[in-house]
Structure formats: C-alpha cells, structure tokens
Amino acid sequence: MLAAAEEDARELGAKGLAAWGMALPFFMRASWFKKHGYKKADSVGMQVLLWKPFTEDAEPPRWIRDKKKPDLEPGKVAVTTLVNGWCPGMNMAYERAKRAAAEFGDKVAFRTVDTFDRAAFREWGEPDAIFVDGKGIRMGPPPTYEKIRRTIAKRVKKLG
Predict the structure, then answer these.
(1) 56/2 Cα distance (integer angstroms)
(2) Rounded-to-integer distance, Cα 66 and Cα 113, Å
(3) Rounded distance, CA 132 to CA 109, Å?
(4) Is residue 123 within 8 Å of residue 116, measured between CB atoms?
(5) First to last CA, the chain
(6) Is 158 helix (H, G, I), strand (E, B) or coil?
C-alpha cells in the first residue's frame, strides 16, 4: 500500500511524501517508515513527521506548531477540547472529556473547537487536544476517562 501511495503521489507530480508516526513502539511506529526509506523531518513530543523526497529540490515539511492557548474561566474550571474527527482514538478522548466535565455541573465550562475548519486548525496549530485550565492533557494513546476525570476533579477541588 505504501508503494502504491508513493507511486500515486509521484504520478500527481508530488516532490515527496510525508507520513506521521509515533516515537514509541505501540502504534504507527515511526521506525516502520524509516525502514521504508523515510527520514525524520520534524517532531513534536511523541509525534514524528517523516519524509521521503522524490526530487532533489524537495523541501521537507514541518509540523504546524501550537499557537493559540485556551481562555480561562474565572470561578470555573475551563475544559477546552480541539477535535476534527479524523482520529477515532481522539474522538473517544473528546467524548470522555465531555462526559467527565458534565459530572461537575456548573463548576466546569466546557468548550469545543472544531479544528476540521481549516481556519480554526491554523489558529490553534493542532487538530486534537484536551486542555484543563489551559494545561494540555498528554495525548498519545487516548487518555482514559478516569485520567481526564481526575485531572478535572483536582482543578475543581482548588476552586474551593
């Protein structure tokens, strides 16, 4: 399949092909792409952007970096989710965050940003994320419901 994708890209005039992989050996291993001639072009956390140039003048891609930070809500815990629907695992994490936030009622302000909208994605700089009071919950494998709930509960407890 990878060879077919590369051939399609070449036929369409692409100067190279990018792939997304993970630095940890559990899912979408970056090392697998490296075995097929891809080289690391950039990384953010555990995410690796790999690149296979087809021409001499090909420029390697770079990740779009995080840009916007979530607004805080005075007197409430702010849970901000970025979701674009492309990753089933992140869709699950979004649903977990939504359910966990709802448990705390009006002590939590839950906000969803639809990063399927290209302008929203460019504004935020990432497609999927969960922030609790402006601090991101580590993504990779989708965080469990319990982890998300505990993170929110700690912030709610600090409200007093």
Answers:
(1) 21
(2) 14
(3) 10
(4) no
(5) 55
(6) helix
Q: Which residue is associated with the tokens 């629907």?
A: 85
Q: Please write the tens of the pLDDT for every residue from 53-62.
A: 999 999 999 9
Q: Which residues of 105-141 are buried (b: 16+ CB within 10 A; e: fewer)?
A: eebbbbeebebeeeeebeebbbbbbbbbbeebbebee
Question: Could you tell me which residues are beta bridge partners of residue 43?
Answer: 48
DSSP symbols for 114-139: ETTSHHHHHHHS-S-EEEETTEEPP-
Candidates 106, 99, 101; CA nearest to 79 is 101
Cβ distance 152 to 109 under 8 Å?
no
What ranges do the domains of the chain cover? 2-53, 77-159
pLDDT in tens, 21-68: 988 877 789 999 999 999 999 998 888 999 999 999 999 999 888 789
Please give the model's pTM, rounded to 2 decimal places: 0.72
CA 108, CA 98: separation in Å to the nearest integer?
10
Cα–Cα distance measured from residue 44 to residue 114, given in angstroms and rounded to the nearest whole number = 21
Per CATH, domain 77-159 is 2.60.120.10: no
Beta bridge partners of 82: 113, 129
